[in-house]
């Protein structure tokens, strides 16, 4: 069997292009608002065709294609794929090879406030139905419609399903320590449990915005319990806890709050993320929001 | 001569703007690619200024 | 049952891949269950419950990938595990591009389409210049549909194009036909040996359509935009286009279209033509024919004449024969005029021309000023004849509905008929109106249903009053709209339909010169 390396070196490039060697040939279209452009050097963490994750000064910065979209820590470059930029994991990534002069800054804060509350609530059920109909089989959408539980067949799959169901329910009932059982559980590079927690974190943030309640401490605590050494997943959890969203989710929230004609398209695009990530974050968001609007934030009840 | 090169080669078009022009060309069987164009920095002078400052220009 | 597994350290796969591979692995002969998950504490506990947690997995970290296979027996488990790993490796090579990539700039578009040779720009004027410069710097020819490009930038672009020998078609260029391709608002015409350079968009459409309809063909239709022939821009784009056609072996006849050029520009054209041996027909609408002859071109007094002349030259028809044919069709036109004039009432005196195409509005005024006298307009030949209110006709009136006062915030009249339709009915109710004159320019980029959207209004206008309705249709049978059907619809609705603006204008002129057909 021939040795097949990581996607990066298979593409024939062994190192990130070097500054000064006529290499500014890729233009940034958008720069996330959490990125500090003064920090130009990092180390490649993981490299895929559409995403290159770099550790820059301790945080994850992702260079992505337009298909992936903007985000608080994303640099969207104008390229169909990243083969011209990529390198081996561990090699230096030098952001100076990217031309930022025409890039826009992506504002990762959702555009929502308490005035959007009623429209948001009215439109919510549209989103729920779309997720139930369109989410992939092994996603957490069974938590929205029990008929989907049948998609899980092998012992491992049913094990995953039951574990997620149980620990998520416990968490949402107020047992914050259940985060420890939820994290890392399930399929995917960002495990399903992590995605559910992300969905909940954003829901707490949005609920706080709509009801004008302080939720920073709660979100911070959940994040601390949820983080793992999976840096990619932890990065998503961090931004979720800060109330910062990625472009596709921002569009979805915007549609829910302001324009129901766009909900379906925005939801479909969000559901297309990963195999189940989009669906799992959506499920977490929906289940949590419904719970909060019924009976408030469950963890704050315990005083 | 560059115009002669154009006249004797296959026409391949980059379209920046109205998509109907791309559709017309495709209808007649010509190769065309659409640029998803946006004004630089959203056309917002303040943001452009902020970006320039950020990059130490 | 036997479980086998392996840890992949430091290898990352996107979740779609993981899911697909796990699904395929489960279908392998003898495999009961196959799973690929991150080595987190929770996943390990679920694996344990499924009796797939091997000793070697216990030290897996959050970042490691666990591949676990459960099978009927040892042999099946081993081969199942190997197959799963193979599937994973092979999956790296598959592209999972789901959405179509749209480049965000000319540079990246050029990477995707490396043989690109033309850029069409129709973004807002203030940004168009920069895009055009980028295109020229990449050695690409450019068509700039945008207007309101700052003057200094316009000059810069045209100069750079001329220096590099690249076509700069525009700014404000609505039409071009390159290598048979319709660029902007353009018609689908036959290819042939007549090359056109035009500073007038609808002018190019009219001439190319008539040439094609008469059995001739177009090699290239180079547009330059309306402002090119002014002193400030010195005909820079026009000259490059002209030189290109002189050098082009496919082009045997050259046709030039414009409003009268600035004298300096005319001189420059004369310079270029000095070494030219191909016949040149010039429709510089309204210009002194002697001046045109002096630079070595054959003057045409209308777009129609330019087209017909060019076709004759292309087909080697003698001038004698050509003039004979022209005279015959003119007589027919006069006969038609006589018959139509009889339908008019004494109080019907005026022409109301409502135009989509600016060049056609101009041409009609040039033809009719000597036939019916003063014509008021929002784009008058004589500044003293400017309409006080473009929305209100006075006496003989020609209105260009493509002008700014009508198009701010709405689509061009070649696309959106509603404004003109309203105006048609207003004119129809005015008892002093003798002729309502309309141009309909079809082709790519324009309204796809000109028949359905105008014919009913023509009917209604014919019922509302006694005005004759003359329609001239510019286009060919190969255009996306069905020209035959459209012409029939207008005729059935009660209009007189021609397919040449100049003839239609002269028809109107003959009718008004001799009302009631005496």
Summarize the structure.
Chain A has 303 residues and is of the alpha/beta class. Chain A has ten helices and eight strands. In chain A, strands 1, 2, 3, 4, 5, 6, 7 and 8 form an eight-stranded mixed beta sheet that branches.
Overall description:
The complex is a heterotrimer of chains A (303), B (57) and C (518). Helix content of chain A is 42%, strand content 13%. Chain A contains ten helices and eight strands. In chain A, strands 1, 2, 3, 4, 5, 6, 7 and 8 form an eight-stranded mixed sheet that branches. In chain A, helix 2 packs across helix 9 (263-271) and helix 2 packs across helix 10 (277-295). The longest helix of chain A is centred in the middle third of the chain and has 20 residues, at 192-211. Chain B has 57 residues and is an alpha+beta fold. Chain B has one domain. Chain B has three helices and two strands, in the order αβαβα. Chain B has helices spanning 2-8, 19-27, 45-54, and strands at residues 12-16, 31-35. Chain B starts with a helix and ends with a helix. Chain C has 518 residues and is of the alpha/beta class. Chain C folds into three domains: 2-91, Gyrase A, domain 2; 106-318, Rossmann fold (3-Layer(aba) Sandwich), CATH 3.40.50; 324-517, Rossmann fold (3-Layer(aba) Sandwich), CATH 3.40.50. Chain C has 18 helices and 19 strands. In chain C, the strands form five sheets. In chain C, strands 15-16-14-17-18-19 form a six-stranded parallel sheet, sandwiched between helices. A five-stranded parallel sheet of chain C has the order 10-9-11-12-13, with helices on both faces. Chain C starts with a strand and ends in a 5-residue tail after the last helix. The A-B interface holds A 29, 31, 37-38, 66, 100-105 and B 36, 38, 40-42, 47, 50-51, 54-56. Strand 1 (12-16) of chain B pairs parallel with strand 4 (118-121) of chain C.
